[in-house]
Design goal:
With 356 residues, the chain is α+β, with helices and mostly antiparallel strands. 35% of the residues lie in helices and 31% in strands. The strands form three sheets. Strands 2, 3, 4, 5 and 8 form a five-stranded antiparallel sheet that branches. A four-stranded antiparallel sheet has the order 1-9-6-7, with no helix packed on it. The longest helix is centred in the C-terminal third of the chain and has 15 residues, at 262-276. The chain is elongated, with a radius of gyration of 43 Å.
């Protein structure tokens, strides 16, 4: 017999790797004789010396009375590109920081301006129109007599290498543990315990049962007598119900059930689930009972919910009975007498929650 593995769906993804290189340089412009520059008027400037950072040449432009009339009370500072390396055309990407320095030569954070710009020609500088108010400079300790300093840090950003890699990917197949365990139950390979239920025998695996049910864990590995018994008799359950419970234990799902048998099977499986501490199975049974509820089953379902503490199921029954037509049909049927006989305590609660 040949076996095959699940088919995976191939796909792909791409990753682009850019190796970014940076080169940083700095230049300090020292302004001496500050008071002599105050009367030059807006738009007049002084240039710093030219400095180079990795090829391109730069200079600072200092406007003592602002670059335009609207900012005449401010000092304006420009960063200007003098020329590219070798006078060749192109674009240079630069991060820059222009800072006023204190008397120790350290940048003043409140007067530090940062920018990023691709420079392509000398006639397009980067400007800080309102770098610092002259009044603020004159009243600060940053003006040392007649001089102060401005520092410009320039970082050239270069993309050295770009590489694109294609990585194949695939879709992981869906979970199939339930299918493998279901096959294990069907094949009975390695089965080490047998249950006798309603005249039928069912073989199973102690480890699986113990992992899925705390009651089976106690019975099969605790101090109870079933620990060493190869055969265990179950007297309070029908064979079909026990078989369906085993299916759920191994596959975590309900087996295929005929439509006419769903209510009865769900009610019996709920009792079994409660006995063996299988809370997911109990919830699945509650859900099935609610979805298939009608006036002929609601009374028995309500009694079952009361007996096994299924509050969600009980609330669902009350909601169903709030319909006047449903309540009237149930009260007039034998089911209501059954409910009063089996769970008389539920009648008072029923009247409080359902009756107008």
């Amino acid at each position: 017999m040949m076996s095959s593995s699940p088919t995976s769906t191939a796909g792909g993804s791409t990753t682009t790797i850019a190796d970014i290189e940076t080169v940083t340089g700095w230049h300090v412009l020292r302004v001496d004789g500050y008071s002599k520059t105050k009367g030059v008027g807006s738009g007049a400037w002084l240039n710093s010396g030219i400095f180079s950072v990795d090829g391109p040449h730069w200079y600072l432009r200092y406007y003592p009375c602002g670059d335009i009339e609207e900012v005449a009370d401010w000092i304006s500072v420009y960063l200007c590109l003098h020329r590219l390396a070798g006078d060749e055309g192109g674009v240079v990407k630069a991060r820059f920081k222009i800072s006023l320095l204190d008397q120790t030569g350290e940048p003043v954070p409140s007067y530090t301006k940062i920018g990023f710009l691709p420079f392509s020609s000398p006639d397009k500088p980067w400007s800080f129109h309102k770098f610092i108010k002259r009044m603020d400079l004159e009243s600060s300790s940053y003006l040392n007599g007649e001089s102060f300093q401005i520092r410009c840090d320039v970082t050239i950003v270069k993309e050295v290498r770009e590489e694109t890699n294609t990585v194949e990917s695939f879709t992981v197949p869906p979970r199939d543990l339930h299918r493998h365990l279901g096959n294990l139950l069907a094949s009975q390979v390695g089965a080490d315990v047998t249950f006798e239920v309603g005249g039928e025998q069912f073989k199973a695996h102690r480890n699986v049962l113990a992992a899925r049910s705390p009651v089976f864990m106690a019975e099969l590995y605790g101090p109870m007598k079933e620990k060493t018994m190869p055969n265990i008799r179950v007297t309070d359950m029908e064979a079909g119900v026990f078989k369906a419970m085993l299916h759920c234990i191994y596959t975590d799902s309900l087996p295929e059930i005929d439509e006419d048998d769903k209510i009865g099977m769900a009610q019996h499986l709920l009792v079994a689930a409660d006995k063996y501490g299988m809370w997911r199975l109990r919830s699945m049974c509650e859900d099935m009972l609610l979805k298939h509820m009608d006036t002929s089953t609601v009374a028995t379902t309500l009694a079952l919910a009361e007996q096994h503490g299924c509050q969600w199921l009980k609330d669902g029954c009350f909601k169903f009975l709030r319909s006047p037509g449903n309540m009237k049909a149930v009260v007039e049927s034998d089911c209501f007498e059954y409910l009063k006989a089996i769970c008389p305590s539920i009648i008072d609660e029923l009247l409080v929650k359902v009756a107008p």
